[in-house]
Design a protein that fits this description.
Length: 190
C-alpha cells in the first residue's frame, strides 16, 4: 500500500523542496523598499516604470539645477565619484552618448557622490582631465539615498515623461550600448 505522504516516484519530496525554495526566495526579496523623506513620510524607492523623483542640486558653478528643468527631454542620470575606477570608464562612455545625442534632446547628468570640502574641485579637475562636457551636479548625500544608490556607478534612464525605463547598478560591459538602446526606444520613430 502506497503512503499518500511519500510517493514512490519521489514527487512529494521534489515538490516539497521546490515549495521551500520558493518560500525562502520570497522571504528575502522585498516587494518594495521604503525610505523616509526629510519630512518623515515613507516613499517607495525609484523603480523601472515609476516616475523619477524631482530633485534640485548644485552644478559645478554653484547654480541650482532641477530635474524638472529638463521636461520633455530624455535624461541619463549617472551617480558616480572621482575615486571610483569603474566610474572613469562610465564617464567616458557617457561623454560619447552626450555628444551623439545632445542634438536629439537627450540630457546626460553626472551626479557626483564625492564629499568633503574639496569635492567640487576634484570633480572639476576630473572633468577637465577626461574632457567631460556633460552637466555635472554635486550630490548633497540625500539624492543618492533617495534614489537607493548603494553602488557606483549607477545609471538611470528616463524617458521624455521622466518615467524610469532602465536602471543599471554598477559597471556592466556594454553599458554604452545598453543605454543607447534605451535612448533609441524613447526617441520618436521617424
Amino acid at each position: 500500500m502506497k503512503s499518500s505522504v511519500f510517493l514512490s516516484d519521489g514527487s512529494f519530496v521534489r515538490n516539497s523542496f521546490i515549495a521551500i525554495g520558493v518560500s525562502l526566495i520570497l522571504a528575502f526579496v522585498p516587494a518594495c523598499k521604503k525610505e523616509k523623506t526629510t519630512t518623515g513620510k515613507e516613499v517607495s524607492l525609484p523603480a523601472v516604470g515609476n516616475r523619477a523623483p524631482i530633485f534640485t542640486l548644485k552644478d559645478l558653478n554653484g547654480n541650482n539645477v532641477s530635474l524638472s528643468g529638463f521636461k520633455g527631454k530624455i535624461v541619463v542620470m549617472d551617480f558616480w565619484a572621482t575615486w571610483c575606477s569603474w566610474c572613469k570608464k562610465t564617464t567616458q562612455e557617457l561623454e560619447k552618448i552626450h555628444k551623439d545625442y545632445e542634438s536629439k534632446g537627450v540630457v546626460v547628468l553626472g551626479i557626483s557622490m564625492d564629499s568633503g570640502g574639496d569635492a567640487e574641485h576634484k570633480v572639476k579637475e576630473f572633468a577637465k582631465q577626461y574632457n567631460l562636457s556633460y552637466l555635472m551636479l554635486m550630490d548633497d548625500d540625500s539624492i543618492s539615498k533617495f534614489y537607493g544608490v548603494n553602488k557606483i556607478p549607477t545609471s538611470f534612464i528616463l524617458n521624455k515623461e521622466h518615467m524610469i525605463t532602465r536602471i543599471y547598478p554598477g559597471y556592466l560591459p556594454g553599458l554604452r550600448e545598453r543605454i543607447v538602446e534605451a535612448i533609441e526606444e524613447s526617441l520618436p520613430k521617424s
